Amino acid sequence: MTLNRYILGSTIVAALGGLLFGFDTAVISGTEDALRQVFSLTESQWGFTVASALIGTILGSVIAGKPAERYGRQPTLLGLAVLYFISAAGCGLAWDWWSLLGFRFIGGLAIGGASVVSPMYIAEISPAQVRGRLVAVSQLNIVGGILVAYFSNYLIAQILGAGHPLAWRWMLGVVAAPSVLFFLCVLFIPESPRWLVKQHRREEALSILEKLGGAQPKQVLNEIIESLHEESVAAGERFFQAKYRVPILLAITIAAFNQLSGINALMYYAPHIFKMAGAGADSALLQSMAVGGTNLIFTVLALSVIDHFGRRKLMLVGSIGYILSLSSTAWAFYTYGTDFTPLGGKVVLISLLVFIASHAFGQGAVIWVFISEVFPNRVRARGQALGSFTHWIMAAAISWSFPMIAKVSGGHTFAFYAVMMILQLAWVLKMMPETKGVPLEQIQRKLGIE
Questions:
Q1: pLDDT at 235
Q2: How far apart are CA 442 and CA 149, in angstroms?
Q3: Per-residue model confidence (pLDDT) at position 231
Q4: Which of 118, 174, 181, 185 is nearest to 149 (CA)?
Q5: pLDDT score of 173
Q6: What distance in Å separates the CA atoms of residue 7 and residue 128, rounded to the nearest whole number?
Q7: Could you tell me the mean pLDDT of each successive run of 10 residues in the chain, 450 residues long?
Q8: What is the dihedral of CA 327, 331, 334, 337, to 10 degrees?
Q9: Total domain count, the chain
Q10: Cα–Cα dist 152/228, whole Å
Q11: Fewer CB within 10 Å of terminal CB in the chain, N or C?
């Protein structure tokens, strides 16, 4: 179907939360050497510095659903833009390690909130036929933000010099600029029609559905009303009960596997990993940009086919790619240890580029689409929050532990991730349902929820 400017513009604006998500996630990777020196950080303290944002992300993913339900999706996105700005400006001006941790934590609140609200909003304004591609725009912006962060770090390092005392402040503080742009753009997007129906504002909801250009807006409105007719009862309904067991298990499992691949270890520590494989400082930053570029290219590819091939097939292809690339990375670290040759370094680079391509084409494109689809309307906010909470709990654990574990054995680290991806492949084959092209109101029936 042809998308009108209204729905496309609203999707792009909401997905800017994803760009800031990716930017803020990856930007700290270029500051490792400077922060270690300035604040005299140990391996554990450096890991905690990285994980401090993720701790905020865990909390943000849990609480974001409440303001999104009470005040609406659009006002919540505005609040997230403010948090992004405060975090970026504060990190750039941090006066000691504790203040840096505090502002990183605030940024984590924004990331966690964006991981819940941006895909939720896009899913709720999207026609079923193109919902996968539109929700995946958020993921496209996330990986775009990651690439911009790597490029920004490299550019600042080249302009000021990697060892310049202000370089790390500019690297962390530059995120403030797109945060302001995000805030201004969100002012012009509509509220979610599904949220408006929950507030008994049906005429407004119908008006927005008509502007969004989907087929038969009155029928869509009636389907939303039908799915929410027990809202007053559902508001006090327990979320963790047998009726919702299947979507709960699906959300927890896909979110946990996402991080057990080791993706956040690569996102946060890419320059460090390439240095472990024998690269110099400038070369490590360039190789990180190659990772970001590959991520973007394969995300665009996945975005173009997710509603044609479906979620399951992308996960199958991605899982196989994960297993092959992580296994070869583990082999390289077992073979070369701390004495990498140029050939060994190339093996690691090529393997990790295959890894990031596999992630972008599989888990990266599917996770937020899938989690936003498997829960019925009346508990979608809580379900989205649960998936994000699981994702960020695992992300914090992986990111905090990586510097300490990798120092002991890079081979063991990547071999563990490979084994986890073998388990993911088995889960996709045995447990994961296909949701492409199914209206949100019908998915709950497909999963046995009435």
A1: 59
A2: 39
A3: 53
A4: 174
A5: 93
A6: 13
A7: 73 87 84 87 87 86 85 93 95 94 94 85 79 74 86 88 84 92 92 86 85 75 73 66 89 95 88 83 79 88 84 94 97 91 91 95 87 80 81 87 86 95 96 81 73
A8: -110
A9: 1
A10: 45
A11: C
Contact 424, 260 (CB under 8 A): yes
Give yes or no for a contact between 391 and 260, defined as CB atoms under 8 angstroms apart.
no
Triad 102, 402, 343: Cα angle to 5°: 130
φ, ψ at 445 (rounded to 5°): -70, -35
Distance CA 120, CA 118 (A): 5
State pTM to two decimals. Answer: 0.78
Is the distance from CB of 348 to CB of 372 less than 8 angstroms? Answer: no
Query: Which tokens hold the place of 434?
Result: 């296909």
Q: Dump the DSSP string for 155-171.
A: HHHHHH-TT-TTHHHHH
Distance CA 108, CA 112 (A): 6
Give the pLDDT score at 343: 92
Give the structural domain span for 375: 8-189+240-446
Crossing angle of helices 380-408 and 363-374, in 10° steps, is 150
**What pLDDT score does 404 carry?**
85
Cα separations (Å) of 416 from 242, 360, 407, 420? 33, 20, 15, 6
* CA nearest neighbour of 135 among 433, 382, 368, 435: 368
Residue at 223 is within a domain: no
* pLDDT (0 to 100) of residue 232: 54
Whether 213 maps to a domain, the answer reads no
CATH assignment of the domain containing 77: 1.20.1250.20
User: How confident is the model at residue 99, as a pLDDT?
Assistant: 95
Tell me the three state secondary structure of residue 192. coil
CA distances, 79 to each of 7, 64, 111 (Å) = 22, 10, 12
In a domain, 205, yes or no: no
Extract the tokens encoding 44: 């554990």
| CB distance 182 to 145 below 8 Å | no
Predicted local distance difference test score (pLDDT) of residue 95: 92
Q: Is 111 helix (H, G, I), strand (E, B) or coil?
A: helix
| Structure confidence at residue 165 (pLDDT) | 85
How many C-beta atoms lie closer than 10 Å to residue 305's C-beta?
15
Kindly state whether residue 197 falls inside one of the protein's structural domains: no
Residue 316 contacts by C-beta under 8 Å, 6 or more apart in sequence? 362, 425, 428, 429
